[in-house]
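Throughout our pipeline, every protein is held as a single compact record rather than as scattered files. This encoding replaces a full spatial description with a residue-level series of whole-number codes. The remainder of this section carries one protein's record, kept here as part of the documentation.
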Amino acid sequence: MKILRLFLLALVSLIVVLVLFIGLNLIPVDDTPYSQTDFYRQTTARLAQLTQPNRPKQGLSGGWAKVNMTPGFTTPTGGYGVRRGKHWSTVHDSIFARAVVLDNGGSRVALVALDLLIIPPTVVESLKKRLPEVGLRWEQVYMGATHSHNSLGGWAPGLVGTLIAGDFEERIVTHITDAVLKAIRQAGQRMEPVSVGYVETPAPELVYNRLHTNGPEDDRVRVLQFRKQSGKVALLASFAAHSTIINSDIPSWLSRDWPGVLVDDLEKQTGDFAMYMAGAVGSMGPTETGSTEDAQLHFIADSLATKIKASLSSIQPKTDSTLTLFTLPVTLRDAHVRVSDGWRLRPWLFLSLYGDYPAEIKALRIGQTVLLGMPADYSGELAMDLTREASRLGLNGMVTSFSGGYIGYVTPDAYYHETRYETRDMNWFGPQNGAYFDELGRKLIRKLTDSKQ
């Protein structure tokens, strides 16, 4: 009986400590209008100070390359569900780092697509230190991920990082960084004059709004084309559907998911180079048609490839010299990880579990096309507003997620109080983030209209 009493006393004491700890670290949600905050004033002041690039000395030149970054060792799987950091054991399809390097004699920019869940903040920090090895700075790089939930993990320290991507291993960060630098270096060695074209095609049967059945869908597959005088072509494709066909039933695969099949299809059909960046996937899911996951992979990827191939003949590539890349550091509201609609954890507690990483928006103009890179799972509904703004100004618009750093989901503010995974669990930085990022995106697009050189 004495042992039982001691056990119960210890248990009660532990419960009391936990209740006190949680109670002391819960504070109300701050719903101060974002336009009245210091974080807004700091970010908009930085935006106003962004400077236009050097004037071009020639038309655009470009080169491209891909590097297989499938490791010779197994790693944790970067994804969710039952993966929970389990190591993949089978290579379903290899993963790559792909790069396109562009230069107009005044500016040089690298576009990099990685077959990963996100662009890990640890890889960004590594690249910031090592990009001078290939003659670049971070401010000259635009990155995106395919968002496969079955690719390399192990790139994020901390409890939250472990839940998403498994136990942290520094060698994985180095491995990814090495592949990125190698792809950029090889692309830079293959530079030739290029013309630029753009096309977008509706694919409503391949995507759905996973927040609301009758909600708007970002259903356009967007393609940016670079064509060398030799006839060689590089395609950058983007679509808003999540890369989640390979689900938690098969946690042992290493795979690019359906974007990998799409890129392979495009390279086979055109005989050239293709790369893919996830679009505004924050509220969009892929249509799953087929009796097996392989069949479902091919349904969406083959369907998109067919649409893209049919649309390529309508592209009229033009020579151009416009090349502008802005990197906007974004100050955020304090962390708002909620335990209920009106209460949140103290910011220090979440940041101690996740890490305090910088957030940035990338804004790139290539000829008549604008790309906006968001550091989040960015909502397709919000992206549609930004692409309409670009169109209003006579530009093509592409919004991609996972530009480097990661701040969770950014969804329309109308959904903020809903108890959904996207709007509660993964909305990490408070109310009005949708309006905040929408305003910043619009202002960056307008600033890029001043960059016609």
The chain has eleven helices and 22 strands.
